[in-house]
Design goal:
Layout lengths: L2 H15 L5 E5 L9 E7 L2 E9 L5 H14 L5 E7 L4 H10 L2 E4 L4 E5 L2 E5 L21 H9 L7 H8 L3 H13 L3 E4 L2 E4 L2 H11 L6 E6 L5 H10 L8 E4 H8 L8 E5 L2 H10 L3 E2 L6 E5 L11 E3 L2 E3 L2 H9 L5 H16 L8
Parallel strand pairs: 3-4, 4-5, 12-14
Antiparallel strand pairs: 1-2, 2-3, 5-6, 6-7, 8-9, 10-13, 10-14, 11-12, 15-16
Length: about 350
């Protein structure tokens, strides 16, 4: 929902969102571009203003930018900084509270406080779930841009240079770059792109990604342990035209070992590759008790990007590994955080704040 639409819907639904006796709220005519809206509140002799910024995206860098603008409004007495969105997750609402900014979302979650006036409503689900956008920065092809930008967060990229590096059309990269700017994922320096807030981007990405979107083929492989399954994969004579890479816990065990695991996840590009492993390893279909899961990637173009060979085995990039681990139910979140601390934290740390 566009920001202007959010403000429009807020004006229409404010009485339902705040059904409080003796509460009167009137929106002022907008005379400047300082804020998205300003509302005058009258409640039983109390008079104060709501200084409102709308946020239309789940982008964490964009949300933080809006919060920074609102915090400046709190300097003046009688002005309440308020963030408005169609929906704010519990994590986003907590961030607002920590930052000293109040919020109203159109789904029903509210936190406002001024003197004796106090409103808190929570637990309302998202009434406006976003459809997966065709031009989402986290879609398959578009994610190549972020994958390369995150590879070296200090590098400043020309559009054509970046397009050539990731084998995409410069026009497409240019259009996506404008979207990334709007989301506060990149800044322009002399017309070139530099990533900003890389850790926040990764936080947004894991919330947009779902491991279950991969097509799973569950098999039982004769082996005493998951480690033995990995060992059997290592000993295979792999044809050069079979593209595959380990991920989830088995992949993490070769990069930043932490958790014990019982399943081995291997990305395999296509059905021909699935059939190769089925025959070579004498795999049996198994819904329960599977110890080898072959995954045809949802990210058909980008899943294998920046993969590498570790201990004679192909492993997906640290970014893809983090995405897959984060949503994996068996100690995946713990392993993802361990991977972040050991491998990604320093790599994603910019030299300076790019606000």
């Amino acid at each position: 929902m566009h920001e202007s639409k959010i403000i429009s819907e807020l004006k229409k639904s404010l009485q339902d969102l705040l059904p409080i006796e003796d509460l009167r709220i009137g929106f002022k005519s907008k005379r400047s571009r300082e804020f998205d809206a300003i509302a005058q509140v009258d409640f039983r002799g109390l008079n104060f203003e709501l200084v409102i910024e709308a946020v239309s995206s789940a982008s964490l860098p964009l949300l933080k930018s809006k919060i920074s603008r609102l915090k400046a409004a709190a300097v003046e007495d009688g002005r309440l900084p308020v963030l408005v969105a169609s929906y704010l997750s519990p994590e986003r609402r907590a961030l607002c509270r920590e930052s000293g900014v109040y919020y109203i979302d159109l789904s029903g979650n509210v936190h406002l406080a001024y003197d004796s006036f106090y409103v808190e409503k929570g637990g309302f689900p998202n009434k406006f779930p976003e459809k997966r956008q065709r031009r989402s920065p986290f879609s398959d092809k578009a994610s190549l841009i972020l994958r390369e930008l995150l590879k070296d967060v200090q590098h400043i990229w020309g559009i054509r240079e970046l397009a050539q590096k990731i084998s995409l059309d410069p026009g497409y990269v240019s259009r996506m770059a404008r979207s990334l700017e709007e989301l506060k994922y990149v800044i322009r320096i002399d017309g070139k792109l530099k990533i900003r807030s890389p850790a926040d981007i990764l936080d947004d990405w894991v919330r947009a990604y779902d491991l279950k979107d991969n097509r799973m083929h569950r098999f039982f492989c004769v082996a005493a342990s998951a480690e033995e399954v990995v060992d059997r994969l290592r000993k295979l004579e792999m044809p050069g035209d079979i593209k595959c890479a380990l991920s989830v816990q088995a992949g993490a065990s070769l990069v930043a070992p932490y958790a014990v695991y019982n399943e081995v996840h291997l990305y395999v590009e296509d059905e021909r590759g699935i059939e190769f492993f089925r025959k070579k390893m004498d795999l049996k279909d198994s819904d329960k008790g599977a110890n080898l899961i072959l995954m045809q990637p949802y990210y058909r173009i980008s899943a294998f990007y920046n993969s590498r060979v570790i201990d004679s085995l192909p492993v997906v990039s640290d970014i893809q590994l983090y995405l897959d681990l984060y949503g994996y139910p068996v100690r995946g979140r713990e392993q993802a955080e361990h991977l972040f601390q050991k491998r990604l934290k320093n790599a994603l740390k910019p030299e300076q704040d790019d606000e």
